[in-house]
Amino acid sequence: MPPLKILTIARKELKEYVLKPGSISWGLVFPIVFTLAFIVRFGDIDHVAPGLVSISIVFGTTSFVASSVIFERKLRTFERLLVAPVSYVEIILAKLLVGSLFGLFVAMVSLALVSRFMVYRIWNLPLVVGYSFLGGLAFSALALMVSLAVENPISAMTWLNLIRLPMMFTSGAIASLLLFPRWFLIAGYLTPMTYLVEGLRFSMLKYAEVVHPVYSALVLIFMTLLFTYLSAELLRRLY
Questions:
Q1: 83-105: per-residue pLDDT in tens?
Q2: How many CB atoms lie within 10 A of CB 206?
Q3: Which residues are CB-neighbours of 56 under 8 A, at least 6 positions away?
């Protein structure tokens, strides 16, 4: 059964890659340290709390997935999966599942930190979990696509940093997009992370600034499907 195959691959991924240096440093330590820095500096962090949780998800998922692909491409262990009776899509879905779960874990750690310093209570925790999982799927798929697209797998992290770091400033994660000129909103709408920030903002604070929460969810789903398809095509070309 396909679900059983996906879960079996996912269990292998968790066992082999959850404690890799790339997963721990960029996926866990960086978001937590970044969150603590804002807490120490500002104290009341309601306005940036959704952005801080979003940063945790983006760095957590992308670091975990990229680390697993880097090691598998470098050690040529992808072949072990490909000779097994599993499809490209099943391999990809397993990686996305594990990446999103890792991102959800990091998000909950970050949420536990920021919620203690927020003035207002979290409005809808199940919705926070839902958007966190959706965002984890979308950015896991993005990391997988980038990791399969680069010729040298070691350079995947470099390319991901070129994508992740600018998104912190163009998504409204740190400073509201409404504080910038109207033309800057174009950059915000073109930034994938914007839709995660806006979805979490609605879930945590019961308001959204520039994107309706339904649109945010739809865009995250679309991103997941698009990057999953592109990842499958890249995997077919590589093997």
A1: 767 778 888 888 898 889 888 88
A2: 13
A3: 31, 32, 34, 35, 103, 106, 107, 109, 110
- Give the distance, in angstroms, between the CA of residue 120 and the centroid of all CA atoms in the same chain: 25
Predicted TM-score of the model (pTM): 0.89
Q: Which of residues 142 and 154 earns the better pLDDT score? A: 142
What are the Cα distances from residue 77, in Å, to 17, 73, 91, 229? 13, 7, 13, 22
The 8-class DSSP code of residue 122 comes to P
**Distance from C-alpha of 188 to C-alpha of 186, rounded to nearest angstrom:** 5
DSSP H or E segment with residue 169: helix 156-170
φ, ψ at 20 (rounded to 5°): -70, 150
**What is the rounded distance in angstroms from the CA atom of residue 231 to the CA atom of residue 224?**
10
Q: What is the DSSP letter of 87?
A: -
